[in-house]
């Protein structure tokens, strides 16, 4: 019986150690600024603009060094009604503040 317990412990301890190292080990380069969080933050920033009624998401791409760009079409509420325009949003992760920040937002005229 003790031999079986010893074998089980000898098997489980290295796997638990490996799982622990994977969880708290050195972060991967891509984990510093994951694209899925950048995508969600981009959507949030565009949807917070009061003049934008609807958005058709388009091109989402990694630019460089935790910078992401998102483009598409936006229906904008104007004095003459709705107007569909192209937009591009660039966001970046600020490691000192540990948050996403809007770098630029442009809408075609």
How would you characterize the overall build of this protein?
This protein is α+β, with helices and mostly antiparallel strands and 109 residues long. It has helices spanning 2-24, 35-47; strands at 52-62, 67-78, 81-94, 99-107. It starts with a helix and ends with a strand. It is elongated, with a radius of gyration of 23 Å. Strands 1-2-3-4 form a 4-stranded antiparallel sheet, with helices on one face. Strand 1 and strand 2 form a beta hairpin. Mean pLDDT is 77; it is low at 24-30. The protein is built from 2 helices and 4 strands; from the N terminus they run ααββββ.
Brief overview:
This protein is an alpha+beta fold and 109 residues long.
Overall geometry comes to elongated
Tell me the major beta sheet: 4 strands, antiparallel
Beta fraction:
35-45%
Q: What's the β-strand tally?
A: 4
How far do the termini sit from each other?
78 Å
Order of helices and strands: HHEEEE
Instruction: Give the oligomer, counting copies of the same chain as homo and different chains as hetero.
Output: single chain
Trace the largest sheet across and list its strands. 1-2-3-4
Structural class: alpha+beta
**Average pLDDT across residues?**
77
Helix tally equals 2
Radius of gyration: 23 Å
Low-pLDDT residue spans: 24-30
Helix content: 25-40%
């Amino acid at each position: 019986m003790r031999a079986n317990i010893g074998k089980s412990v000898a098997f489980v301890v290295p796997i638990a150690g490996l799982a622990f190292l994977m969880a708290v080990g050195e972060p991967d380069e891509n984990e510093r600024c994951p694209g899925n969080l950048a995508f969600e933050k981009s959507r949030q920033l565009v949807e917070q603009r009061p003049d934008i009624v609807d958005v058709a998401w388009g091109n989402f791409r990694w630019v460089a060094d935790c910078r992401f760009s998102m483009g598409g079409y936006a229906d904008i509420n104007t004095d003459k009604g709705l107007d569909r325009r192209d937009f591009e949003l660039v966001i970046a992760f600020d490691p000192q503040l540990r948050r996403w920040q809007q770098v630029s937002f442009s809408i075609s005229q």
